[in-house]
């Protein structure tokens, strides 16, 4: 861990498609990039015991999550020759069909970008202290479990 | 000695609160014992403990300044 | 191969970030989707023998490429439980920094979306009759080689 | 018998044209032999042959209606 302040990855509410587009567009000046890999997590309208999930409400232990994300970022940059990496995770109520996670890696060649993106997503799901509460139509809820 | 505990996710459903103040404990094992007495449902709950933002796996000393957190299984993304 | 007419994947010119955003946005009504994986190929400003690549000019054997892409699509849908797949490849002159390939897979869960996207990209690079001519500043060129 | 050939990518640099009409050939082997006589640089060029949009690996019969294509290594994406 360096002394550098961890970057914030959390945004209130859903991640808009236009935000993803703006992120992509910003990279057009970085002409050493040959490949971008993007992962988007979208809230599913799962049916659990005949009740439909209408939204997920995300909370986090922000201080710990940002430190952990900083460490994941450093590990990934050490392992893969990336040009850049961007991660955004939603907090609050995200409706079914909306995007709650956006991971974006770029590299000169595709292998590094693709592998780094996948590994970052896996580590985020396994290691970031974030919790999703699945909200049903009838205002009951259950806690999401990652597979 | 008083220890402040912050609680997340489904553990809030178990303890009924997102913060707790527990007295007279100096290790995480002592803390867990007290919590289980106070909240019997914790015995069957899945959670990890972080002290000062690091997950702990063994019994760990805690002080007045320790930041202790109860973390149920993560479900981000 | 079915009798169904292969979908066209080719677009004249670069793929705009806004086009990617519109594609993402369209999926917000498909609430059985939990994960999107996107690959974008961007033209690199490589320096070869002291000459800078300013653009790639793409051509294809379109009829054959569309048949092959149709077959790849069928293979990928057979292998992975995808909700949908979209592929766009640029033709003509694409400047360094612009996007020439867009592969977009969606699934209920991340593993299928990520693996299908990567496999589709690999197959496109290996199997589609498309050629890239790397254009230098001085108007000379060389033919691109895929690794 | 005349066979129409379509030519792509760097093979156009070798033959100088994106289409060719070759007479008196009835198999791809015969075709290749004729082409190599006409364009000696083809001997060192890397290319595959497609007949009716399918890559061929063995000597294949061709007719007036065959669509023969010379395909250098792909470099899409």
Characterization of the model:
- The complex is a heterotetramer, with 2 copies of chain A (147 residues) and 2 copies of chain B (77 residues).
- By secondary structure, chain A is an alpha+beta fold.
- Helix content of chain A is 31%, strand content 38%.
- Chain A is built from 3 helices and 8 strands; from the N terminus they run E-H-E-E-E-H-E-E-H-E-E.
- In chain A, strands 1, 2, 3, 4, 5, 6, 7 and 8 form an 8-stranded mixed beta sheet that branches.
- Chain B is of the alpha+beta class and 77 residues long.
- In chain B, 22% of the residues lie in helices and 29% in strands.
- Chain B has a 5-stranded mixed beta sheet with strand order 2-1-5-3-4.
- In chain B, 31% of the residues are buried.
- The A-C interface holds A 17-18, 20-22, 24-25, 27-45, 96-99, 106, 108-110, 114, 117-118, 121, 147 and C 17-18, 20-22, 24-25, 27-45, 96-99, 106, 108-110, 114, 117-118, 121, 147.
- Strand 2 (35-42) of chain A pairs antiparallel with strand 2 of chain C.
The secondary-structure class of chain B comes to alpha+beta
Shape of chain A: globular
Tell me how many strands of chain A there are: 8
Query: What value does the Rg of chain B take, in angstroms?
Result: 12 Å
Helix content of chain B: 10-25%
Q: What oligomeric state is this?
A: heterotetramer
Helix content of chain A: 25-40%
Distance between the terminal alpha carbons of chain B, to the nearest Å? 38 Å
Shape estimate of chain B: globular
Strand content of chain A: 35-45%
Distance between the termini of chain A: 28 Å
Q: Give average pLDDT of chain A, whole number.
A: 95
H/E series of chain B: EHEHEEE
Question: Could you tell me which chain pair has the largest interface and how many residues each side has?
Answer: A-C, 39 and 39 residues
Look at the structure and give the mean pLDDT of chain B.
95
Major β-sheet profile of chain A = 8 strands, mixed
